[in-house]
Each structure stands twice: as structure tokens, then as C-alpha cells.
Amino acid sequence: MKRLFLSLLCLVAYACSSATVYRHNAPDLETTILGGSATHIYVETEDGRIVRIPRKNITDVDHPGNIEAVIGGVIALTGGMLFAVGNTSNQPEVRVVFTALGTIYAVPGIILLADGLINWNRSNSAFDDRRTNLPVLKRTELAPSAGELTTPATSDYAIPVTLPRVPTLTAPTSSP
Amino acid sequence: MPRVVPILLIALTLANAACSSILYRNGQATVIGDVRHGTPTHVVIANSEGQQFRIPRQSVSGTRLGGLRTILWSPLTGYGLLLMAPLGVLQWVGDVNALDSTDGGNAALLDVPFEEEVDAGPEPHR
Q1: Is the Cβ pair B116, A75 closer than 8 Å?
Q2: Which of A88, A151, B29, B68 is 20 to 30 A from A171 in CA distance terms?
Q3: What is the distance in angstroms between the Cα of B117 and the nearest Cα belonging to chain A?
Q4: What ranges do the domains of chain B cover?
Q5: How close, in Å, is residue B40 to chain A by CA atoms?
Q6: Could you read off the pLDDT of A73-99 as tens digits, one per residue?
């Protein structure tokens, strides 16, 4: 029984609030979805910043809580079945034992189920949100070094291309 | 029955997440995938479509390599420890070697797209 609760504890701790965002032409992300606009979703970085990801590159999202909810549902169902078996018995001792077992399974099962559904719904709602428009703050990476020019980004995923600075030419002056 | 449930829980959870490594990045979203190999300046990670990307080592602030969770949780599985612990160690050692390697420089690799930081205002939207 101790092991069961340890396992449930680990599962709840693991199944926090991170969604897996699968993308085309980009690495997959393990992140918390905070909201979205019509064209982007906003996700949180490890150091607490918020960055935006274009929706057009997202191929799939695995929202958190689904596995937790399924496992919680199975455990809660097991508890319910133990209750049912206890209720059909005519012997009081059997009824007490099965009711206790049913409680032991049903309570953590329902907690897991509820927590999973809440997490899944929160992440799903944030992904479906298309009304939050946040301005782009700044570019923190890929800043051009001295002596280099940067072409303007033509799309959200364009990587700035560094070009060597061309020396300026001055018109020859006419000598007397 | 009580012995079966923890094993079922852990097996399901591990099947979902243990195979992938997680790389935390400075100011950028956390990426998850298979760490394939590395170069002196970059780490190469593959996404679910098999595309390989290179991430500058200097932008990686931390890692959670695949297999580590398998090792940590294996005692909870009772006799499953005998199977899961070696599997976790093998996977973790493989990922550590891939992360530390510097000889994967010839493959055609894609740069990781840059993610733009947004201004959430004084009260971040949560």
C-alpha cells in the first residue's frame, strides 16, 4: 500500500502542467502553454520568460493530464467495482473489507482523475485561446556582432543571415 | 492487486516520457527529443519527425536526460527493478555519451528557429 501511494505521488508530481508541442521543421517543445493569438501561442521558458510560437508550424499538441486522468479513472473504477462487490455480499465482514478496499482505491483514483482533467482542460483552453495579443519584446539571441549586417526577418521563423560589411567606396576626387 | 497497480502506473508513465531527453535553454522554450550527437559548439537533437537540429551549447542551461527517471523510479516497481534499472542506466549512459560527443560535425543540420520573447506586461497572462 505504501508503494501504491508513493507511485501515485510520483505520478502527480510528474504530470504537472507541461505540454509537448510537436512542430514541423523545428524541435519539439516541452512547455507550459499560457495562451494564444490567432497566429501564435505563448509558452513559458525555463527562466520564466514568455515566447511565442507560430501556430502554422505546430503539427500536434500532447496536453498534460490525459494519462493521469486515464490512470485515475481506472483506479477509481476499480474502487467502484470493489464497492459494488461489497454491497452484493450478505456477509457483514466481507462488506466492511470490500468497502474499505473500495475507499482506498476510489479516493486517490478520483483525485488523480480530477487533477488530470483540470490540467488537460487548462492547457487545452490556453491553446484554443485566440484573443491574447502580446507585443514582441526583444530579440535576445543571434544579435549581429560588430562588423556584420543583419537582413530583416521575412517570416516568424526566419533566422537572421549575417552578411559581411561591404566597405564603402568614395568617389575619386579630381586633382588639380 | 496492490502490487500490480504501481507497476502499471510507472510503466505507462515511462512509456510516455522516458525515452526523450529535455534540454533547457536560456530565454528560449525547452526542447524535448533524442540527443543524437554533438559538435564542439552544438548539440544535435532530433524531433518526432526525425529531423535533426543543432542547438548552440552556450544556450543550453540544463538537461534532463532520458533514462534518469527510469533509474529513479525503478525501486518502486519491486522486482521490476531488475529490468528497469539496467535499461535506465543504458539509456542514460547513451544520452550522456551523445551529449558529450564532439565528432558529429558532418551531417546536414538545421538551426533551431529563434523564438521571439513577448511582453506580458506587469501582470503576466497565466
Answers
A1: no
A2: A151
A3: 4
A4: 4-106
A5: 19
A6: 999 999 999 989 888 888 888 889 999
Q: What kind of fold does domain B4-106 have according to CATH?
A: SH3 type barrels. (2.30.30)
Question: How far is CA B54 from its chain centroid?
Answer: 14
ipTM: 0.78
Region A141-162: mean pLDDT is: 41
Q: What is the CATH number of the domain that holds A11?
A: 2.30.30.100
C-alpha cell at B92: 542514460
Q: How many residues does chain A have?
A: 176
Q: How far is CA A49 from CA A52, A59, A166, B30, B125, in A?
A: 10, 23, 37, 11, 12
Q: Which of A19, A28, A34 lies closest to A59, judged by CA?
A: A28
Instruction: Look at residue A23 and tell me if it is in a domain.
Output: yes
